[in-house]
Amino acid sequence: MAKITDEQVERVRALVASIPAGRASTYGDIASAAELSSPRIVGWIMRTDSADLPWHRVVSASGKPAAHLATRQRELLRAEGVLTPDGRVNLSEVRFSLDPI
């Protein structure tokens, strides 16, 4: 993976922080808005620096929560009114459109 800059980390953090309750975005949405080459970079940043962010509002392109956090992520989303009846977020209903930073 290419070196990740502080500027990239702050862009990702700002984008995640901008996702309102009851909405969700994908790693790819965030990568695109932050002008990053891969959603995996967003995942790495989220894994290392997101404890104070609404991390649960970021899901895979298929709408699936992070495998290792799926139960907790679904609980937090449900508390905000985002249902996952088949284990996935219905992105056509709750996807938040991110503006590039």
Q: Concise description?
A:
43% of the residues lie in helices and 4% in strands.
Explain the overall architecture.
With 101 residues, this protein is mainly alpha-helical. It contains 5 helices and 2 strands; from the N terminus they run αβααβαα. It has helices spanning 6-17, 27-33, 39-48, 70-79, 91-94; strands at residues 25-26, 58-59. The chain has a two-stranded parallel ribbon with strand order 1-2. The longest helix is centred in the first third of the chain and has 12 residues, at 6-17. The radius of gyration is 13 Å and the shape is globular. The protein starts with 5 loop residues before the first helix and ends in a 7-residue tail after the last helix.
Number of helices in the DSSP assignment: 5
User: How many strand units?
Assistant: 2
Major sheet characteristics: 2 strands, parallel
User: Structural class of the secondary elements?
Assistant: mainly alpha
Strand order of the largest sheet: 1-2
Mean pLDDT: 95
Q: Unreliable runs, pLDDT <50, ≥5 residues? A: none
What distance separates the N and C termini? 22 Å
Shape: globular
Q: Percent helix among the residues?
A: 40-55%
Bin the strand percentage.
Answer: under 5%
**Integer-rounded radius of gyration:** 13 Å
Order of helices and strands, N to C? HEHHEHH
